Amino acid sequence: MKQILPKHIGIMIDGNRRWAREKKLPVFFGHKRGTERVIEIVDYAAEKGIKTLTLYGFSTENWKRSKKEVDYLMDLFVKFAKKYAYDFNKKGIQFRHIGELEVLPKDLQKEIKEAQRLTKDNKKMVLNIALNYGGRNEIVRAIRKIIQKKISPEKINEKVVMNYLDTKGLPDVDFIIRTSGEMRLSNFLPFQGTYAELYFPKICWPDFTKKQFDLAIKEFQKRRRRFGK
Fold it and tell me: pTM for this one?
């Protein structure tokens, strides 16, 4: 009997800094190790047949961190997009950015746009990277777009709103994983994740291996999804 897979997994990649501190390493090393884990899990998810994967990389609230850490992260994201765009393309993975792009550094915007252009026709899996993303911000931006289009109030419904979200055309997220044991959603996909199953493993993201991913999928497959019925 074929096991049911989530159509869309959202992962909050939490705990990079905590992982580094526990090992008495610089915080930046935790972020670097976390990026390496991202590549491993993206590849594994694609191999397993996951069709949409959204990773929460940098929230609208993360700008409150120290300038040194933010600058390091932005540089890391530039290197990530530049290094792996061609690799994703060869593997049939479509790269998308969700969040407010215009606020990000110009060099990062350029690499994101290039990665999206290069991989736009790929069908194996959609990989959303949420950078400068906040769910409330996304909904506000969607409302602004709807107003600009002059759509009359009586024609606005859930489907219309979804067509103006960053995830337009993608299925709702049905499984959200947050590593490090924190048990909150922190402004991650609030509209799309209304009926998502939630999973909060205690391990930090750099320790979230393929085995841990398999355990998460098994947990999802145990859930009874009623959708209010």
Answer: 0.96
